[in-house]
Design a protein that fits this description.
alpha/beta, TIM Barrel, 8-stranded parallel β-sheet, two-stranded antiparallel sheet, globular
Length: 282
């Protein structure tokens, strides 16, 4: 199973995303079962945020992890830009910790840039780290220029990861951002790694090459898309699923090793970027 190291902790390279989960009572039991199935299949990372359903996702995660060994989980949460100040971040963090039912987050991310000076947000994150409420801190939806600015700030080099949109239909970060982070040993977290099915009109799962490769591995097209995202060893993928079977399949995709020939076939269908692209954000 492919792994990735964030700070000094090594985790499987496919975790569990929870965006759009926890909002509907009729799907809650299945979503809790999906998180548990993913963990049972080997996932350690669970990714949530205070923005997701205004806390509904955090509460769902809290219910799903009850009774599980917290030390074996790696929980990621995120603070909204409007709450990323010295005054407000501690309050948001405490509220999120309470919803998830944990004393600390393994990784706490600044969800995207807002009006609070970046230097102030970094100071607030470092304070939370010193208090032991977060093990590590990072950022999300940052491009190269944002990361360069961050690393010039006092304490900025303490950033543990950057989470951005990345999938076979959205490869822009491969041109500059991912190489930049890899050179500095800053892990890249990929959200929406299977493009939310075929939401973006790329028809990824219906592509004949993807389907053929899936057949070669006795896998699903979704599993091939995930195996592709984590192929290079510096990316953590966090696909979301409210279905226990699908969640387990997602995690098991970390066991798939794509051949050079298969990677060439994929590149031929979905070419890598040859120039700087605007950062895709959802």
């Amino acid at each position: 199973m492919k792994t990735i190291t964030i700070g000094d902790i090594t985790v499987p390279a496919i975790g569990l995303g929870t965006w759009h989960m926890g909002d509907h009572a009729e799907t809650r039991d299945a979503e809790i079962s999906a998180i548990r199935a993913g963990v049972e299949a080997g996932a350690r990372v669970i990714d949530t945020a205070e923005m997701y359903g205004s806390g509904n996702s955090e509460s769902l995660v809290g219910e799903a992890i009850k009774g599980l060994d917290r030390t074996k989980l790696f929980i990621i949460d995120k603070v909204l830009p409007s709450n990323a100040s010295l005054k407000q971040l501690p309050k948001s963090l405490d509220a999120s910790l309470a919803k998830v039912g944990t004393d600390y987050f393994d990784l706490y991310l600044y969800h995207w840039r807002g009006g609070v000076p970046l230097s102030e947000t970094v100071e607030a994150l470092r304070n939370a780290q010193e208090e032991g409420k977060i093990r590590q801190w990072g950022v999300s939806n940052f491009d190269v220029s944002d990361m360069e600015e961050l690393l010039k700030l006092p304490g900025g080099k303490g950033v543990a990861a950057n989470e951005d949109l990345y999938n076979l239909g959205s490869r822009g970060t491969e041109f500059d951002l991912q190489p930049w982070q890899e050179k500095r040993e800053i892990p890249f977290i990929a959200y929406t790694p299977v493009a939310q099915g075929d939401r973006f009109g790329k028809n990824l799962t219906k592509n004949k090459v993807i389907q053929a490769i899936a057949g070669n591995h006795k896998a699903t097209p979704y599993q091939i898309l995930l195996a592709w995202v984590i192929r290079n060893g510096n990316v953590l993928a966090i696909p979301q699923s409210g279905d226990p079977v699908h969640a387990r399949e997602n995690v098991e995709a970390a066991n798939i090793e794509l051949s050079k020939e298969e990677l060439f076939m994929i590149d031929s269908e979905f070419p890598a970027p040859t120039s700087k692209q605007p950062l895709d954000i959802l």
